[in-house]
Amino acid sequence: MRILVTGGAGYIGSVVVEETLRAGHETIVYDSLVKGHREMVAPDATFVEGDLHDRPLLEKVFREHSVEAVIHMAAFSLVGESVTAPGKYYANNVTAGLSLVDAMCACDVSKIVFSSTAAVYGEPEKQPIEESDRTAPTNPYGDTKLAFEHALKAYEGAYGLQYASLRYFNAAGASERCGELHDPETHLIPIVLQAAAGERPQVEIYGDDYPTGDGTCVRDYIHVIDLARAHVKALEILDDRSAIFNLGCGGDGYSVRQVIDAAERVTGKEIPFRISPRRPGDPAVLIASSEKIKTELGWEPELQDSDTIIESAWKWMRNRRDSDRAASSF
Ligand SMILES: NC(=O)c1ccc[n+]([C@@H]2O[C@H](COP(=O)([O-])OP(=O)(O)OC[C@H]3O[C@@H](n4cnc5c(N)ncnc54)[C@H](O)[C@@H]3O)[C@@H](O)[C@H]2O)c1
Fold first, then answer.
1. Which whole-number Å values give the CA distances from 46 to 6, 8, 61, 279, in the listed order?
2. Dihedral angle computed from the Cα positions of residues 122, 128, 133 and 135, in that order, rounded to the nearest 10 degrees
3. How do 273-276 and 221-223 pair as beta strands?
4. Residues with CB under 6 A from ligand 1
5. pTM
C-alpha cells in the first residue's frame, strides 16, 4: 500500500515508519517538525514538511502519491500543558485532525489508523481496562483524543471512512535508529536513564503510598517496536470494518520502583530518587486488557520484558550521545 504517516518524524512515528517500510509499504511522512526530528525519518521514506492545518498541501500530497491509507500520529501530547493551554490542544488534536480527514475524503482516501491513548479512560473503574469500559478523560489531552475518536465514528457514518483507533498505554524503548527525544521529557524511562547518565540529579517519584505492591504507581509499558507492528496489522482490517483496540501488554505491568530497579540492573549505575507528593489524577494502576487486539489482529508483544525495553532505550541514548560528541569535536 501507499501510506501517509502524520507525525512520522516523532518518537513513535519514526518507528512505525520503519515497520511500514519493512512490511513493503511505500511510506510518505508528513510532519511539521514542530516536535519531530528530520534525522529520525527513515531514509527510504518520502518526507514532506507540512502542517495538518494546511489542507491544500495535504490534498496535493494525497493526489501526487496516490495515497491509500493514513496513519495519524501527529498531535500534542503533554498532559500538564493541555490543562494550562487547552486551546492549543483542541486546535491541533481536533481541528487540525479534521483538516486531515476532510482532505482524505476529498481525495477518496478512506482508511485511517489513529494514535489514541489510555488517557481516554481517566480513572478506570476496573483493571485490566477493556475497550468497552467507560471513557471519562480527566484532562484536555484525553478529551481531545476522545473527541477525535467520536469524529472518526461520525465520518464513518457520513462518508464511509474506515478507522482503527489504537489506545496506547505507555510506549517505551527504542529501535536501532529511533528513540525517545521529547522536550520537555515527561516519560519515566528516559527520565530514569537521564538520571543514570548523570544528566539529571534524581528521579521524582510521585507518591509511594498507593495500594500497589511497593506503594508506587503501576503502568503497562509496551515496546515501541511491538506497538509499531500493531499499526501494520491494523491496516489489514480496514477493508472490512472500523475498530478500537487497546495497545498495551497486559499482565502485571511495572511499578515506578520496579522500573528504577530494572534501569539500575541494565545500566550498572545507582539511580538517585526522591519521594514527592502524589500528583492529582494519577491512578494507582493502569493496565490494558490486550485480549481484543490479540484475538482479532493476531498481535502479540514480543519485547515486553522491562530489562529488554530499558536496554534498548539505554543503548539508543548512549549511541546518540556518542554521535553528538563526535559531531561536536569536528
Ligand atoms: N508516547 C506515548 O507513550 C503515547 C501514549 C499514548 C498516545 N500517544 C500518541 O501517539 C502519538 C505520537 O506520540 P509521540 O510520543 O511519538 O509524540 P512526538 O511529539 O514525538 O511526535 C509527534 C509528531 O507530530 C508532529 N506534529 C505535531 N503537530 C503537528 C501538526 N499540526 N502538523 C504536522 N505535524 C505535527 C510533531 O512534529 C512530531 O514529530 C501522539 O498522537 C500521542 O498523543 C503517545
1. 12, 10, 11, 41
2. 10
3. unpaired
4. 6-7, 9-13, 31-36, 51-52, 73-75, 77, 92, 96, 115, 117, 168, 170-171, 182
5. 0.97
pLDDT at 328: 76
Separation between Cα atoms, residue 291 and residue 294, nearest integer Å: 5
C-alpha cell at 167: 489506545
Q: Residue 294 and residue 117: Cα distance in Å, rounded?
A: 18
Partners of 25 in beta bridges: none
Say which residue the cell 516536535 belongs to: 35
pLDDT in tens, 132-162: 999 999 999 999 999 999 999 999 999 999 9
Mean pLDDT of the chain: 96
Q: What DSSP state is assigned to residue 10?
A: S
How many Å lie between the centroid of ligand 1 and the Cα of residue 291?
25
Place of cell 496513519: 71
Name the β-bridge partners of 288.
Answer: 129
Length of the chain: 330
- The residue contributing the CA closest to ligand 1 atom 13 is 12
Best probe residue, ligand 1, of 33, 61, 73 (max atoms within 8 Å of C-beta): 73
Q: What percent of the chain has pLDDT over 70?
A: 100
How far apart are the C-alpha atoms of 91 and 317, rounded to whole Å? 32
Cis peptide upstream of residue 128 (ω within 30 degrees of 0): yes
DSSP secondary structure, 25-42, as one string:
-EEEEEE--SS--GGGS-
Residue 330 pLDDT: 65
Q: Which whole number is the average pLDDT over 43-69?
A: 98
**What is the Cα–Cα distance from 242 to 309, expressed in whole angstroms?**
30
